[in-house]
Amino acid sequence: MNFRSFSYTIMEAFRGLIKNRLMSAASIITLSSCLFMVSISFCLAVNLDYLLIQMESMMSITVYLEDGMSTEEVNDLIGRVNQIPFVTQLEFISSGEALERFKVDLEDSAHILDGLDKDNPLPNSLVLDIDSLSHWDYVENNLNELKEYGVETIQHGRQAANALMTVNNLLRVVGALVIAGLGVISVVIIFNTIRIAVNTRKTEINIMKYVGATDAFIRGPFIVEGMIIGIFGAVIPLAGAYALYNPVKDFLINSLPVIDFLFHNQSYVFSLLTPLLFAVGVLIGIVGSTISIRRYLNV
Amino acid sequence: MIVAENLTKIYENGAKGIDHLSLRIEDGEFVFVVGSSGSGKTTLVKLLLREVTPTEGKLIVNGDDLSALTRGQMPFYRRRMGVVFQDFRLLTNKTIYENVAFAMQIVGASNRDIRRSVPSVLALVGLQRKAKAYPDQLSGGEQQRTALARAIVNKPPLLLADEPTGNLDPDTAWDIVTLLEDINDRGTTVVVATHAKDIVDQMKKRVITLRNGNLVRDIEKGGYRDEF
Fold this sequence. Notes:
Chain A is an alpha+beta fold. Chain A folds into 2 domains: 3-55 and 161-297, no CATH class; 60-156, Alpha-Beta Plaits (2-Layer Sandwich). Chain A is built from 9 helices and 4 strands. Chain A has helices at residues 3-19, 21-58, 71-82, 95-106, 136-144, 158-200, 202-211, 215-255, 266-294, and strands spanning 60-65, 87-93, 125-130, 151-155. Chain A has a 4-stranded antiparallel beta sheet. Chain A is elongated, with a radius of gyration of 31 Å. The model of chain A has no long low-confidence stretch (mean pLDDT 82). In chain B, strand 9 and strand 10 (214-219) form a beta hairpin. The model of chain B has no long low-confidence stretch (mean pLDDT 92). The longest helix of chain B is centred in the last third of the chain and has 16 residues, at 170-185. Chain B has 2 domains: 2-80 and 156-227, Rossmann fold, CATH 3.40.50; 90-155, no CATH class. Chain B has helices at 41-48, 74-78, 96-106, 111-124, 140-152, 170-185, 197-203; strands at 2-10, 16-25, 30-34, 56-61, 64-65, 81-84, 158-162, 189-193, 206-211, 214-219. In chain B, helix 3 packs across helix 4 (111-124), helix 4 (111-124) crosses helix 5 (140-152) and helix 5 packs parallel to helix 6 (170-185). Chain B contains 7 helices and 10 strands. By secondary structure, chain B is an alpha/beta fold. The interface between A and B is medium-sized, with 18 and 24 residues.
């Protein structure tokens, strides 16, 4: 395509959009709504992923030791635990230290522990960090084999991690279905918009065919029209999601203080979401207009 | 040059449009194709426009075998042919100038060429003063002259006119036919499918008469009445 055809195509596309402005606006709004849902699902998904990664690194196994172990016995056990593969960090917390930490955690209510200093019920413990959730079973089995060396009970938060993973996977499937459904709706709406545009220009297309216009020349403006709808349909939800991202993030952090996790920052999320949304929007626009014009080219 | 050999077109519903027609039209000729409704005139025009394809036989136009023409070659085939219809088929949202320029834009002509050719073609059909008007501000004759200007602006070797005077009063019809003759004098082959007896009779050009899709008469310097 040479420059003249190119400028003709672009100008005709804008002319078409303005001429059918009501339908153009309707399809931009519909596409925007669909892509806004896509944006929300996307923000949710990346942050849930991030949450999982953080949980993996934050979660640790606590091994409570039998009472009355000598220092040598404790050191021997620490040595053995250290030899288990995938253990990235190991911390020994004595019963006294555990009580101090408990007091700190309780803050104002710490006085209820006052009488316990002499008769501390908390056991010595080891806190293990493991490199990945997938190695938990392995490490746990190895720890179980150390019962005779002083391991009493093993406590971990793996169920919580598994539940979160299940929720995350479920959200992904539901998200994908919702996005696919919205995608189809968008294609149908754009298809109709362009079809109306094509229909009002049926005579024009007919004349163009008789004068010797190629299919590409006729199709061009309609495809560009679809692309422009796609671009606007992506910009609006992007702007909306961008503006809402930080306030929603702050709101979640403040209203759920228990969740001490980090969210992805705005610029990171949108560096991924922006090209995705533009690609999806433009693709939907092209597909919609290609389908709607095909029928009219057979003259 | 147009060559038809045993040309046959049978529509999907079984109706015969053209039935084993053979004819030859040389470059630079002026030919009327006449016949009553259902004689096959319209089918012949549609075949020449490559709107429909032959069921049987051969149709060769400007060296292109229309049975072998691919979809991709069709636009380029049509660029070597100007077309005028009974209903003018102008773009109502474009001015007269733009309607003519449009045919040049489609073939990728430069703006300079467009600015040079369109006014001269409009002058040829006598519409230079109406360049900025819109089709619905013009009379039928002026609209048909616009269509003629559009048909010849790319200088095609062949001009096909399907009932070009069908919607016009007799005086205006004569203007158009005179213009067609002018265009023919400049070397363009002109094929006119028509019902206009008076015009055919007075022009004394070659007349091809069709009936039931067959060629029943082909006379040099003939007339419409020769038909029967």
